[in-house]
Specification:
Length: about 575
């Protein structure tokens, strides 16, 4: 079974006539779109305009998707490929050119007096949600001169501060003594990775080295975060939003009452996570509560090892138990080289899935080492791919789903595999699987909640003044104490997570935290529905995934009878994690 992907469905190479032809065609379509957008001031024939827009935007998006997808995949598999990196930049520039025309179309549409509901029964009926969303976005777009000024100033404003933070973190090093009497200078990224060490002394030493390193750049990082958040507040007000959070919620197609209900349920279940952290401290032989640097300490190791062929068979078998379609999708991905799983120099780390709607396929990057965690990682990414397959029958601009729904299929697939593995494992392996799953859930539920609390407090304080490094650390510690409670040692937390986490330093990533908690709990809730209804759920599940690009989050959930404003839904999802915690404590 091939462990490298095949990209021939896209292009054979950058030198191929097909690649050159599509690059030229993208330029041509962009020019047609520009001319179309410039002509809108003279147009009043709404339906023909919408037809023309739908055709032009679909072609441009499809070409960009294919060209940029190929360049990104080639670069990911070989980061020394300068040609791929160059094409990533050039195609991105072409994408940005189309976005200028987008703004002109959106402004024209929002002022046209057009009622999207009038498209019922027409060939554009499937575009109703898309046009509604564009009209809503249009109400927040400012005049051309102001928008141009904002774009220009962002280059020397938030974008420059974002870049500075990237440089600061990228070059940040710390001094650490891994051997008594001898210290080394290491990048902070490597020092942070030591949190997973099985040596307690190394974990503690790494944590202390990280904190010392953060102090070296705290004033510069504080200037960055104050500038980025200050710009976000200003832009939200200028665009007519009540707050930055309201702006983010609209972008994520989600109502505030859903967010409040989810966090209310999370607060109710925090004591169960705290019990897990206390048990972990006991298993590590600690007298008191768990210190922050021991959150990721391994307390159980899975002895399960898989060949790549065994992993493929395991995943396909478990997926097929849920539905024939999901099993066949995974089988096809393995057999037709959609997955690059080989570990080799020059390849990026981690894992991702790229859905290629232009060719109705996906490609998955992973680094397979034979562990059970590697198996669940591939299952997770195949979930993203299956999500793409379910969406592929839509117009390409109806395949864009919001962040809260991004992890739905991936976590659902991961849950399928984990539940099956737990039934088949011995006590030691079961303990390792549970610990890994609960630890990950703790990050997405408890730690994400602390980050949400911190960012909420940060925006409130930034409305009236800049925050010093000391104030930022104080707010972070306050948030962690509220979220973790007595599960962690309140004297050994991490005051500098505001400095380390990159999500705080980009105006496009405000409140990047809550979608993760939503994604985990929504997927768990769907799995609970499946456990309740059985195999008949699969068809509804696939339809739900196919609709994620053209409905609000609450309307997507209604497809399977879920009311996201109902506290009981979130509690049922959290009950699944609580059951895992209870089983872990018993073991």
């Amino acid at each position: 079974m091939d462990m490298r992907w095949n990209l021939d469905a896209l292009y054979s190479s950058f030198d191929s006539p097909e690649f050159a032809g599509d690059m030229a065609e993208l330029d041509s379509e962009n020019e047609k779109y520009r001319e179309f957008a410039d002509s809108l001031r003279e147009r009043s024939d709404v339906y023909p305009v919408l037809e023309q827009y739908a055709a032009l935007r679909s072609r441009i998006t499809s070409l960009s998707d294919r060209l940029l997808g190929f360049a990104n995949l080639v670069f990911s598999a070989d980061t020394d490929n300068t040609e791929a990196n160059s094409y990533i930049e050039s195609v991105t520039v072409k994408q940005n050119a189309a976005e200028v025309s987008d703004v002109k179309f959106i402004k024209w549409l929002s002022k046209s007096g057009f009622d999207p509901e009038s498209l019922r029964g027409t060939a554009l009926e499937d575009c109703i949600f898309h046009f509604c969303e564009l009209m809503s976005k249009g109400s927040h777009i400012l005049d051309d001169r102001t928008e141009a000024t904002i774009s220009a100033l962002k280059l020397t404003g938030s974008s420059a501060w974002t870049n500075l933070h990237n440089v600061l973190i990228g070059s940040l090093t710390g001094e650490i003594s891994s051997v008594p009497g001898r210290s080394e200078i290491k990048p902070v990224s490597q020092i942070r990775a030591l949190a997973y060490s099985d040596n307690a002394g190394i974990r503690k030493t790494a944590y202390e080295a990280e904190i010392r390193a953060c102090r070296k750049i705290e004033k510069s990082a504080a200037a960055c975060i104050n500038a980025v958040k200050g710009e976000s507040i200003t832009l939200a007000k200028m665009r007519g939003y009540a707050s930055v959070l309201d702006m983010v919620l609209e972008k994520n197609r989600m109502e505030k009452c859903i967010l409040d209900t989810m966090f209310a349920a999370i607060r109710e279940y925090l004591p169960f996570f705290r019990a897990y952290y206390k048990k972990k401290a006991e298993m590590l032989g600690l007298d008191g509560n768990l210190p922050f640097y021991d959150i990721f300490a391994p307390v159980a190791a899975s002895k399960s090892e898989f060949t790549y062929k065994e992993a493929a068979g395991f995943i396909v078998g478990k997926f097929s138990g849920f539905s024939k379609n999901l099993g066949n999708f995974a089988k096809n991905a393995f057999e037709n080289s959609w997955i690059d799983s080989e570990i080799r120099p020059g390849k990026v780390g981690g894992a991702f899935c790229l859905n290629l709607f232009s060719v109705s396929q996906s490609r998955i990057l992973a680094n397979f080492g034979g562990t059970y965690n590697d198996v669940t990682t591939i299952a997770h990414e195949l979930g993203h791919g299956f999500h793409g397959k379910c969406l592929s029958g839509n117009r390409i601009f109806n395949t864009v789903y919001p962040s809260p729904l991004a992890e739905t299929a991936s976590i659902f697939c991961e849950t399928i595999v984990n539940k099956a593995a737990l039934k088949e494992s011995d006590a030691g392996t079961k303990l390792a699987i549970l610990e890994a799953e609960i630890s990950a859930a703790g990050q997405v539920i408890v730690d994400i909640y602390s980050r949400y609390l911190f960012e909420t407090a940060l925006f409130k304080a930034r409305e009236s003044a800049q925050l010093s490094p000391e104030q930022l650390c104080e707010e972070m510690l306050k948030a962690q104490k509220e979220a973790y409670g007595d599960g962690l040692d309140e004297n050994i937390l991490h005051p500098y997570l505001w400095l380390i986490k990159p999500h705080y330093y980009n105006t496009e990533w405000n409140f990047y935290n809550f979608p993760y908690a939503f994604g985990l709990l929504f997927a768990k809730g769907l799995y609970a529905k499946y456990a309740e209804t059985g195999s008949s759920f699969a068809e509804k599940y696939e339809f739900l995934l196919s609709e994620t690009g053209k409905r609000k989050v609450s309307d997507v959930a209604k497809i399977v009878g879920i009311d996201l404003s109902d506290m009981n839904f979130w509690k049922n999802s959290l009950e699944l994690i609580k059951e895992d915690i209870s089983e872990f404590l018993d073991l």
